[in-house]
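Task: encode each sequence below as C-alpha cells.

Item 1
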Amino acid sequence: MSAEVWDHQELSWWLAEMYHGTASGDPYRAGAALDRLRRLFDSPVAAAWFAEQCLGVRTTG
C-alpha cells in the first residue's frame, strides 16, 4: 500500500479511538480519547497536524 493509504488508515483509527474510546468501558482508552481531544484544542501543532490529515495537504511552511 502507498503511504497515503496508510495515512488515511491511521487517521481513521485515530478518529475512531477519539470518538468511541470514551464509551469503551476501558479507563485507559477513555482517558487517552479525552487527552487526544484536549490536545487538539490546546496545541497549535496538534491542530495543524489534524487539519493536514483531514485536508490531505500541508498547512504549514
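Item 2
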Amino acid sequence: MTSALRSQQSRSRRVIRVAASSAVALFAATSVTLTSAATASAASYRCKTSSASVDNPAYSGPWADNYNFDVSLCAKRSGGYIYAYAKVNFEGPVAYVNMTDTLDGARFHLQTKKSVSGPDPVVKSANFTGLEYKLEHGNTAGNGSYTTGTIKYKAGSGRYLADGIIQLDWNRDGKGYRSTNFSASPTV
C-alpha cells in the first residue's frame, strides 16, 4: 500500500470519527433541550389539604352520624390559564352506606379566585354534584373519595387560587344546603 493511500485512509477515518462525534454531541444536546422544554412546560399543581367534621343535624340518636372530610384544593398556572380542582376523601358512618335518604343533595362548589388584598373575588366557579352519589355509596366502612372536574380560567396578571365548599342538604332538616368551608390552595 502506498503512503498516499495510507494517508487518505487515515484522513477518511478521522473525518468519520469527527462526524460521528459531532452527531453524538448534536443528539445529546437536542435530547437535553427537548427534555428541559418538556419539564418546564409541565407545571404542577399546588395543593393545600384541610379537614372538617360535619354532623347530621336531623339525627340526635346514639349512633355515629358525622362525615369526616379531608379536602385538597389544587391550582396551577399553565399556558396562560389557571386550572383548579378538588379531591375529597371522606369517612362516613357505616349506617349511611347505600342509604339514599340521608341527603337530599350534596355538591362541591369549586371556585377560582384572584388573590387581592381583602376578600378574593371569584372569577369562575362550578358545582360538582357527583359528590352525593359517592357519599351515599361509600365502601363497606362508609369511606370513599371524590375528585371534581377541573375548571379552567384565562388568567390575567396577578395571582390566583382554588377555593371550595362542600354543601350538604340533609334529609328531614328543612334547612336546604349547609356549607362547610375548606382552606384555599396556595396562589399560582
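Check on item 2: The longest strand covers residues 103-115. Residues 1-42 have pLDDT under 50 and may be disordered.
End of task.
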